[in-house]
Amino acid sequence: xxxxxxxxxxxxxxxxxxxxxxxxxxxxxxxxxxxxxxxxxxxxxxxxxxxxxxxxxxxxxxxxxxxxxxxxxxxxxxxxxxxxxxxxxxxxxxxxxxxxxxxxxxxxxxxxxxxxxxxxxxxxxxxxxxxxxxxxxxxxxxxxxxxxxxxxxxxxxxxxxxxxxxxxxxxxxxxxxxx
Length: 179
Fold this sequence. Notes:
By secondary structure, this protein is α/β, with parallel strands linked by helices. The protein folds into two domains: about 5-95, Conserved hypothetical protein from pyrococcus furiosus pfu- 392566-001, ParB domain, CATH 3.90.1530; about 100-140. It is built from six helices and five strands, in the order ββαββαβαααα. The protein has a five-stranded mixed β-sheet with strand order 1-5-3-4-2. It is elongated.
């Protein structure tokens, strides 16, 4: 099935009465700033005769602040009503499931250090401090590492040879215990 983007007047969109996602006034202002700067690049997901908004309620409120009159929408009428309700939760939960790759985020924020993300609700100074602390911690030299290795006693001859080989390695200390 191909998705088709339709432009629907805001006045013809209906909020989903069971939407569990919270949008604060502050977040809506951040979304509006993002739309103003980058454009409305993420269509809403709607369904039904009333054009019920399954995902994108925050974007609709932000678009209203900006005076927009119609928005790009994807129809999800192919989903059963129960699937539509499940999609609302799944979509919002999936967005929260992971964080950032710290190394990539640090590199990108470093490259964009003169870019002001404040209007979008991103405190880059906080991220940079946290990432710099993580980097410092990662660069701290390790003086000693301990490993617990469990070996199968049915392979006694090989285990004895492995322990002997490890004892001959420079800087390796081997302690054997039996439980």
